[in-house]
Amino acid sequence: xxxxxxxxxxxxxxxxxxxxxxxxxxxxxxxxxxxxxxxxxxxxxxxxxxxxxxxxxxxxxxxxxxxxxxxxxxxxxxxxxxxxxxxxxxxxxxxxxxxxxxxxxxxxxxxxxxxxxxxxxxxxxxxxxxxxxxxxxxxxxxxxxxxxxxxxxxxxxxxxxxxxxxxxxxxxxxxxxxxxxxxxxxxxxxxxxxxxxxxxxxxxxxxxxxxxxxxxxxxxxx
Length: 222
Ligand SMILES: N[C@@H](CCC(=O)N[C@@H](CS)C(=O)NCC(=O)O)C(=O)O
What we know:
It is a single chain. By secondary structure, this protein is of the alpha+beta class. The chain has helices spanning about 10-25, 40-45, 65-75, 85-100, 105-110, 125-145, 155-170, 180-190, 190-200, 210-220; strands at about 1-5, 30-35, 55-60, 60-65. It has a four-stranded mixed β-sheet with strand order 2-1-3-4, with helices on both faces. The N and C termini lie far apart (about 45 Å). Bound molecules: glutathione. Glutathione binds near residues 6, 44, 52, 54 and 66. Glutathione binds near residues 12, 53, 54 and 66.
């Protein structure tokens, strides 16, 4: 099984899909593609029918889309609690994972994942306030219910989906309650996350569209 993913520093969907097999000890080959440089889009298109990564390749099967990759892994390795064990928790975990997948566009656009950077005060909080409010409420309900440290107690696919949000809170020093900060720390403390992070901060490539200083300069020039 091969997982093709993009720049560890910037690619939030890649991080989500990678954390699951890595945390659950599922063997897979890793293949990095870049989101910059000549011909990068064509290169991804050659490997992924959607032209996007992550993409999981298992024999003849080529699966793009993060949630589909996670479901495929969960079905292939039912002995691993990729989704929580209880039916009610599984329903809630899938619900918040879908909410992440389809939502929070303002936060994703205004605060791109950038693991190696520290950019306090550069995100317009008014733009992301609604998304942050909902994420805080969702995290706090689930953490109260489970007792933490992860959304359903043990780390699950739901946490993989929200890990990039945790990094945005840290990178941009977004306002967050104590409980949310504690959750951010739990994400950073996960050994699989650390493995990704250590590699991410060493990457030399710059993706201009995901650099907030460049985004702000472009917006100011408009
Ligand atoms: N809906 C896709 C989104 C994947 C996605 O947008 N990936 C970005 C990298 S984080 C990408 O491939 N971008 C390439 C492009 O936009 O051309 C998923 O869930 O996997």
